[in-house]
Amino acid sequence: MSNASEPSNVVDLSQRLDPRSERVGALLVTVRGIATKRLHALASNMFENIDDALFDLAEKAENNAAQTQFFDGMREVRKKRAIVERTFLGQVARDLADFSTGRLRSTDGEGSSRPPANVELSLVGESELEETLAITSMIGKNESRLARALFAVNQRLSVICGGNRMDDATNPVGPASLANAFKQAMRELTVEVRVRLIIYKLFDRYVLAGIDELYDDINNELANAGVLPQLRHEVAGRRTDAPTPSSVASGEARPVAGASADHGAPITDAAAAEFMQSLHALFIARRGAMHDGLVAAAPVPTGPMPSAAELLGALTLLQSQIASLPLASGPIVTQADVSRDVAHLKEQLLTQIGQLRGQSSAQVSGVDEDTIDLVGMLFEFILEDHNLPAEMQVLLARLQIPYLKVALLDRRMFAHKSHPARQLLDALADAAKGWSTESDRDGRLFDKTKSIVEQLLHDFDDDVDIFNRLATELQEFLDVSRRRAELAEQRVAESTRGREKLEQARRRAAQEIVGRIGEESLPPLIYGVLTRAWANYIVLTLLRQGEDSNEFRESLRFIADFITSARPAHDAADRRELRLMLPGIERSLRKGLASVAFQDADTEQLLGQLHAFYRQQLGETATDADSETIIASVMPLPDAIAAIDVPVVEPVEEDEADTLSDEAFDERYLAQARELKVGQWLEFVAEDGAAERAKLSWVSPISGRYLFVNRRGLKVADHSLAGLAAAFGSGAARVLDSSLLFDRAMDAIVERLRKPEPAPESTTE
């Protein structure tokens, strides 16, 4: 209330101005003029950038179909830009006109600023949900960013419209109203949902991101005109995620009121309520289909609907019962028992509420029933999700009651990925995806998951901050495990890479030697030196210096010279040429033998044998004993390839499928193998049914083989492309979904709701 010292033209909140007065009329005209001018400039700038953005995306499109979508979107926006812009600004003008005449939009029971329209099933499909989420996100972000300025605009407009309460959702120039107006305008465009979502992002970037100055202008203009000049843009106390007992009892914090769970970023009641409204329509249609054809409906309990406090109290009693049961032993942990508990929680909750009220049963409101069913379907999905090992499914399914309590307190959990409860469940499921008994022999991950589940069951009441704390604790644990696994994974990859390089070098050495020998029949001594000692020298040279080095070229030149030196010298010219070659052969051989760690005595013995051999070649005297020593000391192996230390064949761990050509497999399995990305998780099933989960750690640039490791970084499997395709084809391997659990669950739930269950068969006594 204003005091006596304030100027007479100052308007206090307690005052009520007649919207029809000349003074108020002038102020409203000013506000409309400011809004129209600012929004027209922002919208024009947005449309200029839409064209450029779609063109850039078309140039970078991953395929022709995507490119066509972007080009079609460009043409549609160019053709209908004027009408879309006109519709948007016209809707804003109508909202301002309604405001100026005192016709504020009323909020429904859920705090939504939008009238509860009759939502058809065709309007709540996947694309509609994506659009709703995009709008919800941009509204929440901007209302948080502009909270102070927007609060001041709300209070000042509330004064000049006769004192009617105004909040973020009913403000005609608030982010919610502007986003809704643009949504109406977007109906003029016939474009793919992908293009629509891009346009919404650009609306957020170029319009909503620029309305700061609009609010500053309105606040300054009204303050200068004497409307709450003392107001300093302070935000009224907003409710938090942890509602007080009184607010819970009154239902204030349900379902989506207050600040967002993502660390103080508030979102509007209207945005979250619109998302829930879409799901509510699907639930209504589904329940209608289930009840069609029934002879008589079940009796409806009488009396008032249970309050939030009653619901939470009943859930807390059930939660304490679950918390008292063992998680790691006993029949209660069987998957069948957990599945039964998940399916029957709704019935148990209604019975518990009825007992608290002294009744046989109870009924909850439609919105609360939707929430109960939605959480039930979420945990049914967890129990059916093949990405999770059965042991982890059982553990996570025990969280149904804590998550139902969160959902009743704050239904934004279903719409926002940043909600702490949602992030914790996603993190637990992602960690569990790579779990197996073999990879968790010490039980660290299982025990950590079990500990988190137990803490939620024992400690969670209504303080959502526990989810942030446990998520941080889990992340710290996973970071330590990841660093340990990365070291082991690196060692496995380096070891595999080293073996492959060695194998590749041996193959290359064998090819070079065998190719140069060709059809020639070499003396045993020459043959043995090339296929043993010299082959090892070539391998070492390839590994150390590479195939482009002078050393490698010299090693190949030695092979040719050495083979030439073994040919018979028929005349004086041949003998003269051989004598010229021998010093170089000896130098190269000494150098090569020293590189592969030949002992000096062995080198001298071998050279002595070669001297005796070359004396024979030159027609010089050689004793029979010399010849016998040469033949006995270097006996050749059956063929050139087998003479080298490691046979030049496929690796020892060769898949059976490796010997088949790519054409031997269905193309879709080969494509599936080729599309694998490092970091993706697979499940391998052995012939005895034992399953092991492994992550693709590395694809060899040498052999193209795929290396898989478990969560500890230890090697699990090593497959070629063909071997992996064969495993996919036989069912011995399958790729685990890399998307977040909550996203997968919500997609599956929406799809399930869009296909109403058949009505149960009626029975007669």
What would you say this structure looks like, in words?
This protein has 765 residues and is mostly helical. It has four domains: 22-234, no CATH class; 273-292 and 305-485, no CATH class; 520-643, no CATH class; 656-735, SH3 type barrels (Roll), CATH 2.30.30.140. Helices cover 60% and strands 3% of the residues. The chain has helices at 22-59, 64-100, 126-145, 147-160, 175-186, 193-206, 212-224, 245-250, 269-291, 308-323, 335-357, 366-384, 390-397, 400-409, 420-433, 444-459, 465-517, 524-544, 550-565, 572-595, 600-617, 624-633, 640-643, 667-674, 721-730, 741-753, and strands at residues 681-685, 691-699, 706-709, 715-719, 733-735. The chain has a five-stranded antiparallel beta sheet with strand order 4-3-2-1-5, with helices on both faces. The protein is elongated and about 130 Å long.
